[in-house]
Amino acid sequence: MPLFSINAKPKIALLSAFFAQCQQSGVRLIFSHGALNYRHQQSELSALLAPLKLRKREKKALINDALKPLFTYTLSPNDVHQAIKNETPPPLPSQICDACAPGVFQHYGYLVADQGWCSQCHGRGECLDVALIEYYRQCGIDDETINDNLPRKRWNSLDGGHPYAYQSLGEIKKQYQHVFQSASI
Question: pLDDT tens digit string along 122-142?
């Protein structure tokens, strides 16, 4: 029986083992730019699994246990450029963890990462706000100054609690004007 035969009921254990092997082999699921939010990704995954006619519990388990570890999102230079120019919350994930964007941490480094919620997988941990860090670097600010003196993410909780507030690049530049001025000297 082929693994994805529509006529026969798939064995969930075999399917899970297949996705586990995919994960070990470095296979990643890349979503379209239309799948920016979690709900849209869930609907794309549900549509992918629909021909298998799984029970709701089986489908949910397969998505959470086998497919979520394969999630990834690709950021193009154009995405980063648009996020830098945009004063409103960006339409693309603003904070990305190492698991969701392999290689991004190698390029930017952990020094400029901050604790937060990943916009892609919603996991808590070290995340990078790529557009923000790239903006700082374009302004000539080095990584040590970013780490010591500037916010490393645009979404921050007020007074350590909820709700989260978004700071645009313009607001950050205005609030930390002295850091930007010393970088331009």
Answer: 778 888 998 899 999 999 999
